[in-house]
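lol ok so funny story. i was supposed to be doing the assay writeup but got distracted and ended up predicting the structure for this chain instead. priorities right. anyway since i did it might as well share w the group, maybe its usefull for someone
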Amino acid sequence: MTYTCSCCGKVHDDLPDLSFDRPGCAADVPEEEMDARVKLNEDLCVVDNEHYFIRGVIKIPIHGYEQDLGFGVWVSQKKESFETYLNNYDTPDIGPFFGWLSNELGFGGRKTANLATMVHFQGNGQRPLIELEESDHPLSVAQRNGISLDQAWVIVHDYLG
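and the output, tada:
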């Protein structure tokens, strides 16, 4: 199975990582208010100087496949945790910190925004790993138990669709 990359326009054979360019609440800010209300780069976001987010990766194991399905997502953080990460962004020696998943993946037909997570910092220039709190939510179950390669491609095509 293949997909066409939205960034480069080329057809690829490997599973892509899927990602969000901002947390859901930043996406809800009207474009004309964006500069005044949102500070955003590839890894950090502050909305209205009171809502703090970091970007990380949820990895879903794929049975019998060497690659995980990755979701680049945003997770809320307390101001203190956000500042700790900001001041120590390239070390695994902080955290893990609690946060709420701040993107809507619609995984398994259920909402994902506001699922409880733990953020595990890796250092070495890598984004943090996001671990979902154990629950019966399909995304949490998939992170714990893995999915088939066919399921992964369905998710990719639905997301890119």
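The first strand starts at residue 3 and ends at 4. The helical segments are 24-27, 34-37, 79-87, 138-145, 149-160.
back to the writeup now i swear
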